[in-house]
Structure formats: C-alpha cells, structure tokens
C-alpha cells in the first residue's frame, strides 16, 4: 500500500506513459498518466499538465523563441511562446530524471541545435537515436550533421538505418536523405540510384521530385530535369519551393521571362518566405532591376531580420551598387547575427 502511493510508483507510471506516447498509443498513455497524477500531480514529470492533460506539440522556432501548442482533453487549444532559455530549463529538468525518453532527448537536442550549441546537441541526438530511430530523430540528427558538414558521420547513420528494420515512411526519408548527401558529395551516379529507389516507393513526393530534378540539371540532363519539375508541379501546383526551383532552372536556361512568371507565382503561394524573397531579389539583380531587387531584399529581411546569410547577401548587393556605407552596416549586422 505504501509503495503504490509513493513517488517512486508515480514516477514509474509516468515513465510507462511516456513510452506509450512514444509509440503513439495516446489513449493508453493518458490512462497511465492520469493514474500517476492521482498519486503525485507534478507536471514536471512529463509533457502533460495535471489540469486536464494536454499534448504539447512544437510548432516552430524563431527569433530566440519556441512556439508550442497544447491540446487539452477538454478540446481547448492554447498556443504558448517560451524563450529558448525557459525551454532549456524545462528540458534540463526532464532529462535529469533517470532514463529520459527518446522524445525528451530529441526535443532537447533540437533546441540546442537552434541555439547553435552544436557539440551538446550532437551528444543528445546520439543518445536519442540509440533508444529509437524514428523519422523526426533521424532527420533532426542529419540536419545537424549537415550544418556541421560531417558528411562521413551522416553517411554512417544513413547506412545504419538502411540495415535496420524500418517502416516505409522512414525508409523513404532515409533513401532520400542519402541521395541528397551523395549529391552534395558530387557522387551523382550513386545519388541517382537512391533517388530512384525512394521515388519507386513514393512516386508523388514533390520535394523528392524537385531534388531529383536539381540533380539532373547538375549533370546536364536538362530535358529530364524539366519533365521532373513539371511532374512535381502537376501533383502540387501551389508548392512554393518546387515552383521556385523551377524558376531558378528556367533562369539558368536563360528563359528569363518564364522564370520571372514562375517567381511571381511562387510569391503568390508564399509571400513571406525569406528564402524565396531573397532568391527573387537575386534574379532581379541579375536582370539589372536593382530598385526592385532592393525592395525584395528588404522584404526578406523584414521576414527574417536576424538571418546572417541574408544580411550578408544584402551587404554584397549594396557593395555591388557602390553603397559602401550601407554595405558596412549590414556586414556588421551579419557578423553580429552569427
């Protein structure tokens, strides 16, 4: 009797609930969560709160803040904003309990990645992936390795995944990421093999078709690349990134009127994407439409004001116009943003 009303028993119930959540068995997990809450109503044990229970989902990271949404049993939905420092304290508290779950380790690793604490992020990704090789964890770890340019380590992870039992979703993601990695390493023949394997399983994945089209363009198989872009746009005509890639392809092919038309269609689909706005500015600069290019560079910075790459590119643009005072200012901002 004393044990089943103890903190240790509550902790065991919380832990079992966490395992069930990781397995996406939310109904059963919530049952054990509620049993634990009766003994010790402490929200710090898990991702749920004691007031009705809420599944917390991370939406996105921006400007030093993490945006999350809570789904309560009652049907109520609440969006929350926390600073990175607040979120880090919460994760540190969670992982200091014995045997932290893969979800907790992954969440902390992803946050550290956003905070550019790469060494510590890699440590926690490695811990998470030892427990569970799911899609989110594998992609997150590969994104980190890509930022660190650790291509050999990324290849090891991908090869390990391909040797393990995995569902179709993870298999497709793994094949796709391996193809991208090999493409970055200029191993085009092997890269194409993995693209085709991924597309054999999931032939209508628009992002994969776009990436494969980029590969075909890189190896001068432009007619095939264009067919690939057209297939992707037929499947998803409003997917902005594919249309942007096609516009860039058309610009490379010196079909600039068509390229500009597709850039404008891209912005109709997504007018606030900083990367798309910047790429359109690059195109306009190449076309010597510098007043218009400056307008879109500024829109890109309004959308993502601390993006060091965009700040640096805008500084380069200003320098090309011999606006050295403006260029100096934005170079300094780019260094500060890093």
By secondary-structure content and strand pairing, the structural class works out as mainly alpha
Termini separation: 57 Å
Q: What is the share of helical residues?
A: 55-70%
Order of helix and strand elements from N to C terminus: HHEEEHHHHHHHHHHHHHHH
Mass-distribution shape: globular
Rg of Cα set = 24 Å
Number of strands: 3
How much is the average pLDDT?
Answer: 86
Binned strand content:
5-15%
Largest β-sheet summary: 3 strands, antiparallel
How many H/I helices? 17
The low-pLDDT segments are: 42-53
Summarize the topology.
Layout: H1 7-22, H2 26-39, E1 54-62, E2 65-72, E3 77-83, H3 84-95, H4 102-114, H5 118-131, H6 135-147, H7 151-163, H8 168-184, H9 188-201, H10 206-218, H11 222-235, H12 240-252, H13 256-269, H14 274-286, H15 290-303, H16 308-320, H17 324-337
Antiparallel strand pairs: 1-2, 2-3
Helix pairs in contact: 1-2, 3-4, 4-5, 4-6, 5-6, 6-7, 6-8, 7-8, 8-9, 9-10, 10-11, 10-12, 11-12, 12-13, 13-14, 14-15, 15-16, 16-17
How would you sum up this structure, described in words?
With 338 residues, the chain is mainly α. The protein is built from 17 helices and three strands. The chain has helices spanning 7-22, 26-39, 84-95, 102-114, 118-131, 135-147, 151-163, 168-184, 188-201, 206-218, 222-235, 240-252, 256-269, 274-286, 290-303, 308-320, 324-337; strands at 54-62, 65-72, 77-83. Strands 1-2-3 form a three-stranded antiparallel β-sheet. Strand 1 and strand 2 form a beta hairpin. Helix 10 (206-218) runs parallel beside helix 12 (240-252). The longest helix has 17 residues, at 168-184. Residues 42-53 have low confidence and may be disordered.
